[in-house]
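Tokens as discussed.
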């Protein structure tokens, strides 16, 4: 089976980092702002109502900070499950929307370095993927694992299955081609079941 996997908030655990960094950024640049709008949203810049200019500046500053301080950690069992899927004969494609300008000018290099550091193996890595439906179709992927319902919708529109890494902001997404999962061990058994039922 060809399995496409997102990076942030799927393999990595970045959401809390984003919120903490956005809170600090907001406190520094808007010291009198005592309140912020918290909703079911995974974009910290929207929660703090940053302007487009602030959003751009924040992500450049924040990504550089978390890279330099080695703050990004893998989700529990991500390494074990992804490496086991490879051992089982599946192809693993890392398909991320990470853009170069927000990852020190080299999203691919930074991502590859992080994956190597944490011992996570893969078949091929793709960055700057803002249309994951098209990319997954091009790769002939059978499934995408992602947390963002926008990308799940793109992929499902191509008739490709998705596993949604469940979070408050995506719980309402439903599609006949989509399954929700709460952790990597659960994802492993979903894929194992699909492999058998689809005969792949």
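Sequence:
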């Amino acid at each position: 089976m060809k399995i496409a996997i997102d990076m942030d908030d799927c393999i990595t655990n970045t959401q809390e980092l984003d919120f903490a960094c956005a809170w600090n950024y907001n406190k520094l640049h808007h010291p009198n702002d005592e309140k912020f709008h918290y909703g079911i949203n995974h974009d910290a810049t929207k929660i703090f109502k940053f302007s487009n200019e602030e959003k751009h500046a924040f992500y450049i500053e924040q990504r550089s900070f978390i890279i330099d301080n080695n703050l990004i950690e893998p989700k529990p069992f991500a390494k074990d499950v992804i490496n086991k899927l490879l051992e089982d004969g599946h192809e693993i494609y890392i398909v991320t929307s990470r853009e170069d300008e927000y990852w020190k000018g080299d999203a691919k290099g930074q991502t590859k370095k992080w994956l190597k550091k944490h011992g996570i193996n893969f078949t091929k890595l793709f960055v700057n993927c803002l249309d994951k439906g098209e990319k997954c179709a091009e790769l002939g992927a059978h499934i995408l694992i992602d947390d963002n319902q926008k990308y799940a919708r793109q992929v499902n529109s191509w008739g490709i299955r998705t596993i949604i890494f469940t979070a408050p902001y995506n719980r309402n997404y439903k599609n006949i081609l989509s399954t929700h999962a709460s952790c990597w061990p659960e994802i492993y058994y979903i894929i194992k079941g699909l492999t058998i039922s689809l005969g792949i």
